[in-house]
Amino acid sequence: MNPQEREELLKPYLPSAPRLREASTKRKQHSNGTASGLGVRNVLKKQFYALSFALIHAIFSVYIRIRIACHAVYLRIVSVLYYHHHTPEYIQRDVQGLSRKPKHLSVILSLEEGGKRLDAKEKLISEVADIAAWCASAGIQMLSVYEKTGILKDEMQQSHREISSKLRNWFGKYQAPDLHLHSPNMPVVHPSYYSAPAHKGAGEYGIAIMLVSEEDGRESMVDLTKVLTVMAQKNKLSPADITSDVIDNELTSSVMAEPDLLISFAPYVDLQGYPPWQIRLTEIYCEQDNQSVEYQVFVNALRKYAQATFKLGK
Amino acid sequence: MSIKADANVQRWIATLPPIAWALRQARETLIGTLRQGPIPQHVAFEMDGNRRFAKNNHIETIEGHNMGFEALAKVLEVCYKCGVKVVTVYAFSIENFNRPKSEVSGLMKMAKLKLEQLCQHGELLDRYGAGIRVLGERALIPDDVLPFVDRAIEMTKHNTDAVLNICFPYTSRAEMTAAIKATVDEFSMPSEPPATPFSQARITETIRSKQPKRTDSSTSLREASPDPAAKSDVDDSVSSTTTLNPGSPRTEAKGKEKAIPFKDAESITVDSINSHMYTADCPPLDIFIRTSNVMRLSDFMLWQCHEDTHIFFLKCFWPEMDLWHFIPVLLEWQWRQKKEREGTSGRRLKTE
């Protein structure tokens, strides 16, 4: 193709030349003064646009409501058909055929109604416990839970008790996985009977939950920058030494590693301030129009993850 | 072959005067209509699927890339006409250098060609009123491509209505690293002491002359045994102790040398890092679109996809992207904006 041909190709998509545009606006201004013909036309045009905007949005609104309803019905039916009956074996069966599973799963949860209701936190903890049970059954040993406000990080001992008791409901008192509750910059909460790290190891049923909030996102990078700045001011490091490996290493060990799969239980993908560094190649799954934490979304996400082909830079 | 023939037939039909006219009118009407609602200020596209599209349709890879370029032209037209201020596209990742050498050189050749084309069509670009910026590691751009990059930027410099950010070669982690590095640089450069009529030396002198002998000896005694911990952390201890003590001139000189006024590291905020991002002067990212049904950010706009960014993963391949794929996204975004506004105002009403 020579330049002329390409110009021909693009011509239909181009706006009029700026000179022409200016000329036409000038003409319009003139005509506004002399004859109101074009002015009236402009007003009419505007009215027409406003009308069609209202119309299009009305139609779209109907469409989206139908879509939401369809998705809700579909999810209901599927979740009735494939209910897990609080039995780990059912979940194991569901994930058996998958070619690969994430080692580190991350979920985004949010407080209902901005946390105004009193039982909002309890609901959140019970959601975390459910997801933890699903993960433990599916053989995923690392779960990170992102909740924007960080309310889960308060009273981690109590959260640990509640999640553990729920896990015992699922697995039975003696088969329940060891739960380790982590949070950046906080001591790990182990089970009370947990003595040495090598006691059971991260055995078949051990599960680690990492609680992450907004302050572990951009804020933690700011904190890291502060530390690096102080070091540079003391001549302990030259800014040229700062590489992405250094930052990656720091953020991985002090906040968390990059998750393999991120599930958003919101109606659409909204990261809500999720740690930016860690989300580089994470597979993101979001069930369109879904409103709540459903087992079916979890399974669909795992299925989608197993299908996804992975290639970096290719 | 068939896709090419199809495209030709479609193009032929679309160029029939009445149909072309009707299509243009329909497009103009739609865009004019959508302009009535809220318009995103910053949209990012991850143009994925050129090669898969080519493979699926049994056409050459380069043809797929060409169709991708055409799709970009279409999408840019729609965006700018709708009133989007900044469009950011991911053209080439630093990771792409890991591809086979022949492919990288092929891609670079294409980049050169495209930029050359852009330069040839300089006046056409002006119609968009869009200034081109190239974001990324400049040092990694091959020498033979660099002049074209500079020329394209130079040619569109005067366009300030809108911005086209081309990320080339870019990864978000490299961007964040560069931003952190720049912030550290900024804060570890000795800052100019603020202009003031008061002289620190004079104050010190006055204090020293007024000090009784007793304190004098005690301070010098304290200084006589300097502890090693304090020595390594002098920058924190500032000039107060060192310059106020009337010790030997040697320590005084040392103190002055060490007390370089740094900007306080604690004053670093998200904004100071943000100001060193490539997109510092762009409005926050409203919409992120990735095509070809891949649900990953893949090292693109990680920092910018922070919150209030609506991420859309589309099923179509990038060459198929056009107005009709973009409009549902825009409509849904407008719808969510409306919902959000209603939600917040509703909540405010409830609390009041």
TrEMBL record, chain A:
UniProt superkingdom = Eukaryota
Q: Give the UniProt keywords, A-Z.
A: Endoplasmic reticulum, Magnesium, Membrane, Transferase, Transmembrane, Transmembrane helix
What EC number(s) are associated with this protein in UniProt? Answer: 2.5.1.87
Looking up PANTHER family in the UniProt record yields: DEHYDRODOLICHYL DIPHOSPHATE SYNTHASE COMPLEX SUBUNIT NUS1
Cross-referenced InterPro entries: Nus1/NgBR, UPP_synth-like_sf
**Cofactors required:** Mg(2+)
Which Gene3D superfamilies does the protein's record reference? Decaprenyl diphosphate synthase-like (3.40.1180.10)
Spell out the family assignment given in the record's similarity comment: Belongs to the UPP synthase family.
Task: Copy the pathway line from the protein's UniProt record.
Answer: Protein modification; protein glycosylation
* Catalytic activity line of the entry: n isopentenyl diphosphate + (2E,6E)-farnesyl diphosphate = a di-trans,poly-cis-polyprenyl diphosphate + n diphosphate
Q: Where does it live in the cell?
A: Endoplasmic reticulum membrane
Q: By its UniProt entry, which SUPFAM superfamilies does this protein fall under?
A: Undecaprenyl diphosphate synthase
This chain's protein is named: ditrans,polycis-polyprenyl diphosphate synthase [(2E,6E)-farnesyldiphosphate specific]
The yes or no answer to whether the keyword Heme is present is no
TrEMBL record, chain B:
- Renumbered to this chain, the Basic and acidic residues biased-composition regions fall at 205-216, 251-260
Pfam families reported for this sequence: Prenyltransf (PF01255)
Question: Which keywords accompany this UniProt record?
Answer: Transferase
User: Which family is this protein grouped under?
Assistant: Belongs to the UPP synthase family.
EC numbers listed for it are 2.5.1.-
Query: What domain of life is recorded for the organism?
Result: Eukaryota
InterPro entries, per database record: UPP_synth-like, UPP_synth-like_CS, UPP_synth-like_sf
Q: Which organism is it from?
A: Apiospora aurea
Region Disordered: what ranges? 188-260
Q: Which PANTHER family match?
A: DEHYDRODOLICHYL DIPHOSPHATE SYNTHASE COMPLEX SUBUNIT DHDDS, DEHYDRODOLICHYL DIPHOSPHATE SYNTHASE FAMILY MEMBER
This chain belongs to the protein called Alkyl transferase
Its EC top class is transferase
